[in-house]
Amino acid sequence: MIGAGTRRTLAAVAFAAAGLAGCASGDQTADTAFPPPQPPVAAQHFKVTQPGQFPIDVYFSAWGEGYVIYAPGLAPIYLISDKKDGYVVQRPGESAAFVSRRKDGSGWNVLRADGPATMFLRNTEGDGWILQAPGELPTLIVPWPQ
């Protein structure tokens, strides 16, 4: 079963992709009002590893004025620009989260009404990003293939 930590990890992957490689190109033939049900071929691929778990595949793709994060067996996560250098993160049936850039440029803060802020930081010891929720071990997010 996938827990809240994985959901936060998947949300943060979008910001890693934006910071590492810019926008992924979407399927130009798809209806722009709705993202495709599966990640497009051009989607960026990431491996997300929570402490003590096996890596999972996550795909990130541009869509409309934001992005979509796909992970096998989970509902997609939508990231919509707030037009003020941040994003609103939404998954069907869940509360929205808000993401803002850290003032020191080291990453992002993921803010939720129902819990403490989660830090999404550049990995200073290698490629990728680190997702750090208060009181939890860090989750590693790396682009794939390396």
What does the model show?
It is globular and about 35 Å long. The chain has a ten-stranded antiparallel barrel with strand order 1-2-3-4-5-6-7-8-9-10. It has 146 residues and is mostly beta strands. Helices cover 12% and strands 40% of the residues. Mean pLDDT is 79; it is low at 14-30.
State which percent range the strand residues make up: 35-45%
CATH topology category name: Glycoprotein, Type 4 Pilin
Provide the number of structural domains. 1
Helical residues, percent: 10-25%
Major sheet size, sense and barrel closure: 10 strands, antiparallel, barrel
Poorly predicted tracts of residues: 14-30
Estimated radius of gyration: 14 Å
CATH class: Alpha Beta
Return the CATH architecture. Answer: 2-Layer Sandwich
Number of strands: 10
Per the principal axes of the C-alpha atoms, what is the gross shape?
globular
Contiguous helical run count: 1
Class derived from helix and strand content: mainly beta
Span between N and C termini? Answer: 28 Å
- Which strands sit side by side, in order, in the main sheet? 1-2-3-4-5-6-7-8-9-10
Note the run of SSEs as H and E. Answer: HEEEEEEEEEE
